Amino acid sequence: MKKLGLLFGFFLILLANTVHATDNPMYTEANKLYQAKLYDSAANLFLQLIEKGNVHPTLFYNAGNAFYRSNKIGMAIWCYKKSLQLQQNKNCAENLKLAEMRMKEPIAAVKDIFFIRWWKSVYSLFSLNGWAGWSLAFFLFGMSLLYYKKIKGSERPSNTYITLSMLVSAICLFFLIVLYIHERFHYKGIIVEPYTFFRKDIRAEGILISEGMEVEFKGNYKTDMLIILPDGREGQIPATAFRKL
Amino acid sequence: MERKCFSHYFNAQQGPHSFKFAFPNLHNLLSMKAAFISLLFILVTISSSAQEIVFITQPAANKVGIQDAFEVKYILKNASQVQKFSLPESNDIQVVNGPSQSNNTMITNGEVSVTIELTYVFRARHKGNIVIPGGIAYGGNKEFRSNNVTIEVVDGSVAPQRNQQRGGNPFGNDPFGDDPFFAAIQRRQQQMMQQFQQNQAQAFGRQAPPQQQAMQQRPEVIGKKDIGNNMFIKVDVDKKKVSLGEQITATYKMYTRLPMEVNLTKLPSLIGFWSQDFKIPQPPKPKREIYNGKEYQVFEIKKTALFPTQTGTLQLDPAEAEGIARVLKPKQIKQQNPLQGAFDNDPFFKQFFGSMMMNDPSFDNSFITAYDYEDVPVKLKSSPISIEVTDVPNTNKPNSYDGAVGNYTLQSKIDKTELTTDDNANITLQIMGTGNLKIIGAPKIKFPEDIDAYDPLASDTITHTDNIIAGCKTFTYSFAPRIPGTFVIPPTSFSYYDPTSKQYKTLTTPTYTLHVKLGKNDNRVANNKLPKDIHDIQTSPIELHVKHNTKWVFSPFYWGGFVLPFFAYIGLLFFKRKEEMLQSDIVLFKNKRANKIALKRLALAEKFLKQKNQNAFYEEASKAVWLYLSDKLNIPLALLSKELAEQKLSDKKIDMALQQELFRITNECEMALYSPESGVLKMQQTYGDAVLLIGKLEDGLV
Lengths: 245, 702
Description:
Structural class of chain B: alpha+beta
Shape of chain A: globular
Radius of gyration of chain A: 23 Å
Strand content of chain B: 35-45%
Number of helices of chain B: 13
Largest sheet of chain B: 7 strands, mixed
CATH topology of the largest domain in chain A: Serine Threonine Protein Phosphatase 5, Tetratricopeptide repeat
Number of strands of chain A: 7
Oligomer: heterodimer
Number of domains of chain A: 3
Structural class of chain A: alpha+beta
CATH class of the largest domain in chain A: Mainly Alpha
Number of helices of chain A: 9
Largest sheet of chain A: 5 strands, antiparallel
Number of domains of chain B: 4
Strand order of the largest sheet of chain A: 6-5-4-1-7
């Protein structure tokens, strides 16, 4: 029992995110530039912070505003969406809608069939680490029940509980894999280049797609990227026009 | 010999200029003699069963005009034996042309029949009834004569009658009839006829009718050296000095006085112009044109409206063509034409021509010159033309000017002014007129901010009548209001430069007022609640973290979290099993050794029995039983009591009689320990009972 406890504690420490607090003069500077209406420079600084790996809903929100003001609608939408992924915020959601209204030719998304929607909502219930955590937790719980039952010879936890917790752990693991595959191979992104030509294949004539459109990644093809438009059309765009969400 | 008929085809199948037409040549006239050489009778000597020869004279019409040339056919059927043919002299008619011969061989049921047709073109010498003499054919020492035919000759011409017969107008004004081949023959006939008349007129000192004068030239001999003067491509432009965007009409023409077959090899590329081709009639019809005092056949190769897109001196590229031209070469017949010599001695030839030409003084040797033709490769190239293009004036240039030059009108239309936020509406601008329509860009409409406008769609219809490019350009602007309200679309201006009045003109559309109501579309309703502008940034300081986005899935520690407890569990389970196994081994051992110990003790007790040591005997016997029970029931000796033993034995399903026997023996042993001597017999019985009991228990307690 002692061993198990130690093990569990060890994992808890390990799984906790490594956190470094940083000084942020750059962020303050960017905000100042924004207030001085130097939106381009502000957007540039915000973007540098983001590229460095800083993650904060407010950082993304402010960056989105800076991009919006410098007429980079694609990047603005990307920033707002990143911010909303981290934290729901009414202002941010409204700004996102305003930005989306400035898209030249939005393409209405085709709704998935209901069971696909359900399926998606189920596996998106937790993050990758969420599913991983739950899976491990249920596994460890089941193991400890097993320990009591088999090693200690206790009669109290019935086999049903043990089976159930192991099953739940396995299901969580399964969703973890499904979500991983989805995130790894079917992730979404935003078109951030203002003039992006979407072609059905290399020979087809391109159509212009608006920046800010959310598209799904499908694969890479040389310097191009295969994507799926919201209405289900598949084709290729230059890889530089795509920014992963 | 078949008559040579000169039909000239001019093919230009390059680019858009593909045309094909017959080209009758004025100077294609062969001399009289040369023409008559072609009067060759092919002698037919096909042996066949003798059949009666049918020989008839068949005029094309029974009534002709004095000006008309008319055809007469001499038809010989079953003419396999015919060797010669002659035509008797007649004062009524003169031979204009012919004879042309056609042979027709038919094989019916193995019999060969040959039909020969000789066609002459005659002209009547006087009015009234004339007799066309029948022909004479010689064959197989026989002479055949065809019937004489009388026809009526009237004043003037009855050509239409002939039209019906021939399906064309051989002497009409349009030399380019349906059948170019036929037309060429007719033209030649006409020319020859005129030549004939001219010669006669000279001979008799009469003047030729004035309407024929133009055609009465001696054939001009055009040699190789003269090709350049008789065949060339020329570019005509209507203006050489224009302002930017103003229309110039350029016409590429081919002038020729020779029969030819020419292909266009290079069309002008027209750099610096936006061009629009006019349609050229298909097939192109040549026109007559006097140029430098000579008459030419002129073909339009290309006609283009040009709109300069650059200023400065621009050059119109030359057009180039390559092909073959047919030139005439005069030849002395006696030297050059072996056939001529042969015919000189031909009685038929002499007889025939003698009758026709003997009294014609113009028919002399100096005139009898054969014209042979020669095909010469030619390369034609037009000379480039420079055009000076000046810029449109900068003064008073309106802001909305976008390069349109010409003369235009503007119409504007809106399809609805009452709409909802769900609707789309269209404004259509139509620019009509003449000028560089195609390069007109869409005028900018200033839509209010809350109206989403899409890029305008442009379409143009160009009609080119005569020499001016005219048409209509339509721009359709789609727009959708985002929010309800009343919106005003301000007037839109379109400016153009009018080169004739040399000033700018601006046209404007009316102002449109839109009334927009709220639509049903949810998105837009939701959007209506949105603020006008984005929310401002949050400036409160935040603690920024660089998050290393660790995925537990990739961490070996995470999977260790599964693997380690699992192995720990397996290890613990294994350890526990082993201990349990060890313990169960001890019990078995004890069980097994119990009997042995008991028997040992009993053996010791027997020893004491022999020594008659009563106390020691009973003690050993009691110990043997109890130790046996302790081992067998796996109860430590210290804990073993009568009750516990009883319970355990009951558990092990030892029957009551045996238990009672066990407790009787143990009681007896205990009693004997504290009682006086009971004798050897008693001890022996107890010993025997104890041995028996352990044996029975051993059976029961496995």
